[in-house]
Amino acid sequence: MVNVPKARRTFCDGKCRKHTNHKVTQYKKGKESKFAQGRRRYDRKQSGFGGQTKPIFRKKAKTTKKIVLRMECTECKHKKQLPIKSLFLEYNNEINSLELDDLSMQTLRARRTEEVPRTSHPVLSC
């Protein structure tokens, strides 16, 4: 599993305006509302006869997802998000760490198996 510290000391953009301790969690998408405008429009269009009315996307290209860390200030409770560019995270503090979800680990394994060692090209090296 990829480990991320449960707490981090970083700058607070809220009322504090100084470096404070932040509680770190992994961002997860919330449940979709049934009454959002797009959902209502889609449900109305789908109702009745006529089958599937909108295209269903099936050409997934990416193998990994960027991790987004959600940090909450312990003093003023201000929340901010920090996207991590890579799944290969290295931290010294392994004792205070939270384990990332299974989807992140599956994408990490897929990325590791796809990596090909880089060799010099015979034509381009001239």
UniProtKB/TrEMBL annotation:
Record flagged with keyword rRNA-binding: no
Gene3D superfamilies: 3.10.450.80
Ribosomal protein listed as a keyword: yes
GO biological process per UniProt: cytoplasmic translation
Cross-referenced Pfam families: Ribosomal_L44
Family: Belongs to the eukaryotic ribosomal protein eL42 family.
Protein name: Protein CBR-RPL-41
Organism for this UniProt entry: Caenorhabditis briggsae
